[in-house]
């Protein structure tokens, strides 16, 4: 279902403008990893999944998207899993840790919400990556944010950054703070770089 849907979406969305992908070679060729992408609208979710084909992304999504039978079926078939953003607990990282142990890719939007404003990043991506000993791949998107924007011929662009690893030469707590800063700084740099391309 995922592969078919992604390729079908690629054809449909390409009618509105071809996706430009930069530095995809920075994505590790094997092993699990956490993709942390900027999030300004629902379209970036689709383009991110398309940009990384044939690799499949397992998206962390708010539990509210699983409340109706159809949406629940759709989200499951698109490799999404629910998370309670209001009351995160130890069980929140159980599913992504299992996926990463199976060498899969987990997609997280660290802003936690769709916004074009600068907001503090949530710690989920760093916590999961550090606990699973896998890298975070920072990714920035610039382009249409919603269905209406697609008709403006606003060409979508995605850029991948260098993997961010938990430093091995310091305590884990301090290392996670370094990862948070690196992720925040890198996403800002990638967004600015995309705007000038």
TrEMBL record:
Domain of life according to the entry: Bacteria
Classification via InterPro entries: AGP_acyltrans, Plipid/glycerol_acylTrfase
Keywords, alphabetical: Acyltransferase, Lipid biosynthesis, Lipid metabolism, Phospholipid biosynthesis, Phospholipid metabolism, Transferase
E.C. code: 2.3.1.51
Single GO molecular function: 1-acylglycerol-3-phosphate O-acyltransferase activity
Pfam families in the record: Acyltransferase
Catalysis performed (reactions): a 1-acyl-sn-glycero-3-phosphate + an acyl-CoA = a 1,2-diacyl-sn-glycero-3-phosphate + CoA
Residue ranges of every copy of the Phospholipid/glycerol acyltransferase domain listed in the record: 33-144
Family the UniProt entry places it in: Belongs to the 1-acyl-sn-glycerol-3-phosphate acyltransferase family.
PANTHER family: 1-ACYL-SN-GLYCEROL-3-PHOSPHATE ACYLTRANSFERASE (PTHR10434:SF40)
Comment on protein domains: The HXXXXD motif is essential for acyltransferase activity and may constitute the binding site for the phosphate moiety of the glycerol-3-phosphate.
The protein's name: 1-acyl-sn-glycerol-3-phosphate acyltransferase
Organism: Virgibacillus alimentarius
């Amino acid at each position: 279902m995922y592969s078919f849907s992604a390729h079908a979406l690629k054809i449909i969305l390409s009618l509105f403008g071809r996706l430009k992908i930069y530095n995809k070679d920075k994505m590790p060729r094997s092993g699990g990893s956490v993709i942390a992408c900027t999030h300004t609208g629902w379209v970036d979710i689709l383009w991110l999944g398309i940009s990384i084909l044939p690799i499949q992304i397992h998206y962390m999504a708010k539990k509210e998207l699983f409340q109706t039978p159809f949406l629940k079926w759709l989200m499951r078939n698109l490799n999404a899993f629910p998370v309670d953003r209001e009351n995160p607990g130890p069980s929140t990282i159980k599913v992504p840790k299992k996926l990463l142990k199976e060498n899969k890719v987990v997609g997280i939007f660290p802003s936690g919400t769709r916004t074009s404003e600068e907001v503090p990043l949530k710690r989920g991506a760093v916590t999961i990556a550090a606990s699973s000993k896998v890298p975070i791949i920072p990714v920035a998107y610039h382009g249409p944010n919603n269905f209406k924007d697609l008709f403006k011929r606003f060409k979508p662009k995605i850029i991948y950054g260098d993997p961010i690893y938990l430093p091995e030469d310091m305590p884990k707590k301090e290392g996670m703070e370094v990862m948070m800063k690196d992720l925040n700084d890198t996403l800002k740099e990638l967004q600015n770089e995309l705007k000038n391309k």
